[in-house]
């Protein structure tokens, strides 16, 4: 029996699993680490913390599973996107990593639009410049910490720094590299035109692989520490979302998944490169060789619920506690009693500005249509609906390009709500399906390790064998027609308020 290890290097913790060649998880482990916020809008982590967490969790799952070292065929890495890790000529970390949610590089984002027009960025990298992506962070360091930049010889993403520690190899994969703003996403290689315009030496960047490719093997010292052998291969791996797609079995044209957490994402698999006008969706290479994916959705999804819960629902929180129940179950029960459209109340879920489908950092949230009939329950349902309106906008951008989503799978967080799933089915206009067992990015990493070591014949084959659907939420055509009217009004509200929000942002 062969075994495979999947590692998901997340923002709050690293989760690692070990599974057998039949897709059964034998053991799992996790380790958390701190997030540093040295200034308003800044977010950093120490790469050494990632390394230590990965080492500890791999040791733990190997020990728990009790499998012979020689039976562990490979390790697949998944990781948070966009983080900047800089190493010197001795491959030593120069500073803490500026991670994905750091917003300090807005000035550099603006500069990138002056370096190249938006159309050229879309042509070369598939996406418009974003402050949270790696290139803008690198420009910030060059401008604000020239001492560090002068010493930098290697530019890596978070999971790829861990790969270097495991194997001594500088490598990345196409899905994670797509979020660096320096990859030619269409042709799956570094963009020489962009690197020239940014004045970045390609020698500083890691070699790019497809996600299931084997990039190296464990160093002797590392293998001994982990209880493994130097024949244990390390696959290229993928970004967290690309690996999550494997964990939900979204690996073919027409398949998509939605997850609602602090932010919400609708992820769609594409067999062919499809340019999204204006960058309304992120366009990335996916973990299936030769394929792509889009992703988009509101940043303030579950965050909107948490904001309303903490600010205005102390009574419901106390009631849930007294009854020994979850606040979210109570929220769903209350919202269920409110009709479709929340009695003409619409919520715009843009508390923190927006990336997709509307690239506008100065936008903010709003309740529109409030009157005396509206209760707390109306507002809770309106928040839920507003989040799905935004997700449906992403789906419509794909439809405009001729991409039709036939099956929508859901996983994690708010997607466990039957009410939220009904809203999705009505606004996506397709069935919404849950899974027998939800597996995250770590599972996707293990699948990639299996495909790379020939334990599985392909990524698609493994997913079709192991990922099974459970329940379906069907489209309600009557409710869908009502939602279409509300969705049109929602979109007009966004457009009509935009100038006011831009002016509001300039008020001192």
Write the layout of secondary structure elements.
Layout: E1 3-9, E2 13-20, E3 25-32, E4 44-45, H1 47-65, E5 72-79, E6 85-87, E7 97-98, H2 106-115, H3 118-125, H4 134-144, H5 146-151, E8 154-156, H6 158-167, E9 171-173, H7 174-177, E10 183-184, E11 189-190, H8 192-198, E12 207-209, E13 214-217, H9 220-226, E14 233-235, E15 238-239, H10 240-247, E16 255-260, E17 264-270, E18 282-285, E19 292-296, H11 302-312, H12 314-322, H13 327-336, E20 346-348, E21 366-368, H14 376-400, E22 407-413, H15 418-428, E23 432-435, H16 441-452, H17 459-466, E24 469-473, H18 477-505
Parallel strand pairs: 1-5, 5-14, 5-15, 9-12, 16-22, 22-23
Antiparallel strand pairs: 1-2, 2-3, 4-7, 6-8, 10-11, 13-14, 16-17, 17-19, 18-19, 20-21, 23-24
Helix pairs in contact: 1-6, 2-4, 10-16, 11-12, 11-14, 13-14, 14-15, 15-18
Write a structural description.
By secondary structure, the chain is an alpha/beta fold. The protein folds into 3 domains: 3-242, ATPase, nucleotide binding domain (Nucleotidyltransferase, domain 5), CATH 3.30.420; 253-295 and 395-473, Nucleotidyltransferase, domain 5, CATH 3.30.420; 302-383 and 483-503, Nucleotidyltransferase, domain 5 (2-Layer Sandwich), CATH 3.30.420.40. The strands form 7 sheets. Strands 1, 2, 3, 5, 13, 14 and 15 form a 7-stranded mixed beta sheet that branches. It has a 7-stranded mixed beta sheet with strand order 18-19-17-16-22-23-24, sandwiched between helices. A two-stranded antiparallel ribbon has the order 4-7. A hairpin with a 3-residue loop joins strand 1 and strand 2. Helix 1 (47-65) crosses helix 6, helix 2 (106-115) packs across helix 4 and helix 15 packs across helix 18. The longest helix has 29 residues, at 477-505. The model has no long low-confidence stretch (mean pLDDT 95).
């Amino acid at each position: 029996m062969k075994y495979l290890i999947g590692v998901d290097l997340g923002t709050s913790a690293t989760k690692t699993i070990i599974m057998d060649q039949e897709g059964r998880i034998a053991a799992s482990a996790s380790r958390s680490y701190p997030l540093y916020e040295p200034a308003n809008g800044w977010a950093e982590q120490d790469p050494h913390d990632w390394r230590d967490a990965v080492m500890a969790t791999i040791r733990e799952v190997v020990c728990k599973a009790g499998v012979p070292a020689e039976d562990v065929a490979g390790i697949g890495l998944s990781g948070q996107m966009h983080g900047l890790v800089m190493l010197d000529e001795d491959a030593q970390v120069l500073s803490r990593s500026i991670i994905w949610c750091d917003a300090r590089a807005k000035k550099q984002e603006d500069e990138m639009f002056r370096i190249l027009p938006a159309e050229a960025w879309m042509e070369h990298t598939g996406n418009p410049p974003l402050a949270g992506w790696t290139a803008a962070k690198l420009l910030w360091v060059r401008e604000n910490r020239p001492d560090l930049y002068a010493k930098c010889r290697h530019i890596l993403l978070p999971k790829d720094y861990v790969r270097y520690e495991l194997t001594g190899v500088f490598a990345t994969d196409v899905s994670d590299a797509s979020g660096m703003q320096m990859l030619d996403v269409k042709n799956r290689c570094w963009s020489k035109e962009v690197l020239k315009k940014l004045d970045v030496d390609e020698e500083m960047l890691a070699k790019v692989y497809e996600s299931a490719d084997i990039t190296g093997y464990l160093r002797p010292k590392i293998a001994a520490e982990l209880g493994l052998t130097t024949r244990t291969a390390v696959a290229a791996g993928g970004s967290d979302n690309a690996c999550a797609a494997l964990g939900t079995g979204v690996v073919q044209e027409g398949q998509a998944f939605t997850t609602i957490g602090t932010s919400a994402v609708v992820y769609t698999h594409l067999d062919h490169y499809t340019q999204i006008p204006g960058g309304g969706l992120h366009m990335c290479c996916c973990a299936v060789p030769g394929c792509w994916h889009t992703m988009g959705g509101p940043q303030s999804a579950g965050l909107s619920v948490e904001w309303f819960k903490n600010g205005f629902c102390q009574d419901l929180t106390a009631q849930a506690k007294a009854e020994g129940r979850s606040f979210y179950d109570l929220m769903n029960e209350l919202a269920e009693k409110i009709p479709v459209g929340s009695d003409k109340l619409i919520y715009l879920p843009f508390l923190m500005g927006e990336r997709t489908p509307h690239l506008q950092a100065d936008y903010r949230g709003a309740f529109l249509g409030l009157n005396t009939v509206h209760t707390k329950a109306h507002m809770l349902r309106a928040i839920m609906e507003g989040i799905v309106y935004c997700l449906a906008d992403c789906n419509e951008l794909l439809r405009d390009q001729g991409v039709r989503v036939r099956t929508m799978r859901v996983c994690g967080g708010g997607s466990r709500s039957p009410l939220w799933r009904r809203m999705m089915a009505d606004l996506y206009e397709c069935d919404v399906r849950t899974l027998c067992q939800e597996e995250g990015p770590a599972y996707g990493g293990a699948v990639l390790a299996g495909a790379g070591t020939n334990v599985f014949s392909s990524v698609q084959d493994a997913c079709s064998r192991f990922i099974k659907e459970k329940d379906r939420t069907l489209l309600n055509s009557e409710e869908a027609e009502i939602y279409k009217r509300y969705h049109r009004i929602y979109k007009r509200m966004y457009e009509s308020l935009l100038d006011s929000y831009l002016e509001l942002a300039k008020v001192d």
